[in-house]
Amino acid sequence: MHPRTTAARRRAGAPFLCALAVALAGCSPERYPQTALLPLSDFARIGDHVQDQTFYWALGVFVLVEGALLYSIFRFRGRPEDPEPSQIHGNTTIEIIWTLIPALILAAIAVPTVKGIFETNAIPKGAMVIEVIGHQWWWEFRYPEANITTANEMFIPAGRTVELKINSGDVVHSFWPPRFAGKRDVFPGRETRLWWKADSTGLYPGQCAEYCGIQHARMAFHVRSVTPQDFEAWIGHMKAKGPPKPPAAAAPAAGGSLRTASAGAKVQGARDSAAAGAPAQGAEYAAGEKLFMTKGCMGCHSLQAVGAPKGLIGPNLANVGSRSHIAAGWLPNTDENLERWIREPQSVKKGVLMPNLGVTVEEARALRAYLRAHQ
Ligand code: CUA
Fold first, then answer.
1. pLDDT, tens digit, 9 for 90 and up, residues 267-302
2. How far apart, in whole angstroms, are the C-alpha atoms of residue 342 and residue 182?
3. Which atom of ligand 1 is nearest to the CA of 209?
4. Is residue 324 situated within a structural domain?
5. Fewest Cβ atoms closer than 10 Å to its Cβ: which of 13, 54, 263, 275?
């Protein structure tokens, strides 16, 4: 081989290898964890199995059809002196064959598909119920057995089946935790169900998968799968925040017939948080607590985990300080982001129900300190 030709080939191959590397990097579950191709539960594996089978049938069809095509193109290519080829239009035998073969392939794919539909619709007995309520644009998670509520970060015990009872507080959404299960439509006034048993621990993203308004793309959430021991500890931790106190001083009304967090909810005091293991509170915390009650925050948000009122306008903030993300699962929960989110929600997530309340930089810092203490 001529050395220059080899070098030229290498040069030509380099961009191809780079493109391949970039394309494969796109498959990395570490950077793009929202994939349905790496199932982490029994439910997800049912769908993955159907997908695999369909893929292998499609691959076989592709290789056979393209192979026959390429073979024919080269083997039977025409030359100028060739006579007109024989015409096969209306050949009954061939038409029966090319109708039957696809029908048989579709039947072969239909068997695992229908089986999968039945398997995923049969909810296992004895599952732990979690109520999921979709809101524009965040997710509410209620644990009726433990009587606790959280938002946007769903805790589940690995190795135990969870059964989700899904509803919407407003419009149609779709609940999609890709590593654990398929999509489920979320309707107002009609319950849908979903279930799975996680076989791994970790933090995995999920997403609303039905267009539901301008911030649909930012209606994300996370599933935090933990060991059964850690799950029990988390339930205990949430319960230790205490049952709802009797209604105290009237909270600022949010108007009309809207049911708000202030109905029956009492914001947790510094003493309660300290008891729940929050860090020692300083002046910033005290200022934040005061602001939380006077700036209108508690018109929409509840800070109580146990017996939280239903029909909240805004997400429950009982453990907001320890959540991985804020603003419904997409903005990392850093101090900087939390302060900005409090100060100017309409520029962070335009159209969200939380209005810009004219919070100053200092006030945002105090509110952040107060909320961060709610682990
Ligand atoms: Cu909710 Cu899209």
1. 344 344 444 444 456 888 888 888 888 888 888 888
2. 33
3. 2
4. yes
5. 13
